[in-house]
Every structure is written in structure tokens, then in C-alpha cells.
Write a structure and sequence with these properties.
- By secondary structure, the chain is an alpha/beta fold.
- The chain has 8 helices and 18 strands.
- Strand 11, helix 4 and strand 12 form a beta-alpha-beta unit.
- The longest helix has 15 residues.
- The chain binds flavin mononucleotide.
Length: about 300
């Protein structure tokens, strides 16, 4: 049975990866999950300098999902290379480094520092951070996105994944902007901006207030799966690069749905919080499905979705 997939120049042994920010640097679930069985570990977003992230409260549960406003908390690129990458490299785990920055210069600098480092399989650009110069998010401004991807493309030969924001009117415009800038693949999607309210206690004069210190946060988990499926399907039809499906995937069935609409691989995020073995279970579940349906090569499942009726 062949489960390997090629994601824009990076070959990984199966299509199941962890989603950035939900698995640390591959070090958080070592007792509970065998990371060597995964296609790749995608790290928490790495910036040039270490960062604390936002003040608490910065996460809460919602119906069928969660909201988070962790921010940029990470060890910084130097400590990542010195301390976090070697254990993955020694165990032969493919590592995709999620790159974050608040300027193009920072994205380029982090990408350059990771270039030529043994054990870095690919870079994933998290373009949903505020662009300090324009006050806009790279991920919601196609022009800024194109400029960013073009600059990083020039700075590194590493396979480049660009992680798109769903918080836009038409995700295909951003997808094309990133592809025109030279990205090798697209990750679809990041979290959906949401908020939660604490009603307080009017009898004691405590007015309703935000649950998160940041007021808004990113919604993830099963609640966003239909949105993610729709966006992956749209992006697959709009561009010619591989697409990685992300959003609410918790089971092999979920993952297979993303592969069917054209994703070449998937990432699993929030599900790992309530089931640390979710990624391994998805690998096993896909393999079981392939056996049951006599599929010899996973690539034969990708993009098999069809609409069996004509438009009226
Ligand atoms: C706590 C938390 C931290 C996250 N941190 C990052 C991050 O650093 N970089 C990034 O690109 N995405 C980050 N994400 C987004 C996830 O990688 C993923 O795109 C999103 O959660 C949707 O997938 P899911 O529904 O499977 O969780 C984070 C998500 C969560 C829940």
C-alpha cells in the first residue's frame, strides 16, 4: 500500500500532519502518540525572537470547537534550531516549520535562518498576523500576500507552503496571489475569527464582557469543518499547486472527505487536544479504508469527488 504524497517538492510518507500550534514542536504528546508514524509535524509558529504571546485568558471552549488568542508565543528561531529540531531529526520525523513575523523582513530572516538546516522539510508561512507597516493582515490583502510570498520565495529554496486565512470574501483571490508569488503549495485554512461573551452578573453590577482578554480569537475544531471543506474545494479548482486541508478534522472519515475534494494531505489541530492519538488514528483509519476498498495508492483517492447531477 502506497501512502506517500508529494506536497510541492516535499515527499512525506503519509498525508497526515499535525496542525501548527496544537502539537508544540512535536514534543508535547511523546508519551501518548508516536510522532514517527506521522507524515510530518508542523511546529508552532516560529518568529525571529522568542515571544510571550497574548495575556490570559487566551482560550475557551465553544459549541463543537474552541477559541484561541495565543498569539506569537514561541521559543524563537535560534532556540528552535538548537533545542527543538534535533529530537525530531534524530527520530527521522519530517518537520514543517510554521513561520510567523510582523514584517516581510522578519518572515525573510526566519526563512533564511531555517534554510540549509538538516531536518527542516518545508516552511509553512502563517500569513494571518498583522502587517505592522500597512495595518493589514497579509492573509487578507492579496497584494501584501503576493509581495510577502515573492520575497520569501527569493530568500529560500525550501518547499514553501502558504497558509491561507478564511477571513476573506473570496479565498481563491488570495490563493492565486500566493501561487503567483511562487508558493509550492497552500494550506487551507487557519482559524475563523470569533468571540465569546461572559454575561457577568447584572445583580452585582458586573456587565457582560469578553471571555478572551484579546476580545476576539480564532475558532477551530469540528464547528469549522464544513467551511474548511468548502474552501479547500474552491481553492483546488482555482490553482494548480497541492492543497493541504485543515479545519475540524478529527477522524479518518473527515480526512478522506478532504482528500476526496482534492486535498493532497491534511493537518489535525484541535482534535489532538481531546484525543492525543487522533493523528495516529487517522493514519490507521485511512490505511484501513484503502484495504477495505482495494486502493493501492493514496494518490488515487485525491480529487475523486464529483457532483453527479448537472446544474439546473
Ligand atoms: C491553540 C492554537 C494555536 C495555534 N497556533 C497556530 C500558529 O502558531 N500558526 C498557525 O499557522 N496556525 C495556528 N493555529 C491554527 C491551526 O494550525 C489550524 O489551522 C486550526 O486550528 C484549524 O484546524 P483544527 O480545526 O483542526 O484545529 C493554532 C490553533 C490553535 C487551536
Amino acid at each position: 500500500m502506497k501512502m506517500a504524497v508529494n506536497i510541492g517538492g516535499a515527499t512525506i510518507k503519509n498525508p497526515v500532519m499535525t496542525a501548527s500550534g496544537t502539537y508544540g514542536y512535536g514534543d508535547v504528546y511523546t508519551e501518548l502518540c508516536d510522532v514517527t508514524r506521522l507524515g510530518a509535524v508542523v511546529t508552532k509558529g516560529v518568529t525571529l525572537e522568542p515571544a510571550q504571546g497574548n495575556p490570559p485568558p487566551r482560550g475557551c471552549e465553544t459549541a463543537s470547537g474552541m477559541l484561541n488568542a495565543i498569539g506569537l508565543q514561541n521559543v524563537g528561531v535560534a532556540a528552535f534550531i538548537a533545542e527543538k529540531l534535533p529530537p525530531l531529526r534524530e527520530r527521522g520525523v519530517a518537520c514543517v516549520v510554521n513561520v510567523q513575523g510582523s514584517s516581510i523582513t522578519e518572515f525573510v530572516a526566519v526563512s533564511q535562518k531555517l534554510t540549509g538546516i538538516d531536518g527542516v522539510t518545508a516552511l509553512e508561512l502563517n500569513v494571518s498576523c498583522p502587517n505592522k507597516t500597512g495595518g493589514l493582515s497579509f492573509g487578507t490583502d492579496p497584494k501584501a500576500l503576493n509581495t510577502l510570498v515573492t520575497a520569501v520565495r527569493k530568500a529560500t529554496p525550501l518547499p514553501l507552503m502558504t497558509k491561507l486565512s478564511p477571513n476573506v470574501t473570496d479565498i481563491t483571490v488570495c490563493a492565486r496571489a500566493a501561487v503567483d508569488g511562487g508558493t509550492d503549495s497552500l494550506s487551507v485554512m487557519n482559524t475563523v475569527i470569533g468571540m465569546a461573551v461572559n454575561l457577568g452578573d447584572p445583580s452585582r453590577g458586573i456587565r457582560p464582557r469578553p471571555v478572551l482578554r484579546n476580545v476576539t480569537g480564532g475558532l477551530s475544531g469540528p464547528a469549522i469543518k464544513p467551511v474548511a471543506l468548502r474552501m479547500v474545494w474552491q481553492v483546488v479548482q482555482a490553482v494548480d499547486v497541492p492543497v493541504i486541508g485543515i479545519g475540524g478534522i478529527a477522524s479518518a472519515t473527515d480526512a478522506l472527505e478532504f482528500l476526496a475534494v482534492g486535498a493532497s494531505a491534511v493537518q489535525i489541530g484541535t482534535a489532538s487536544f481531546y484525543n492525543p492519538r487522533a493523528c495516529e488514528e487517522v493514519v490507521d483509519g485511512i490505511a484501513a479504508y484503502m484495504t477495505e476498498h482495494t486502493v493501492a495508492d493514496i494518490n488515487d483517492l485525491i480529487g475523486t469527488f464529483e457532483i453527479p447531477w448537472t446544474a439546473t
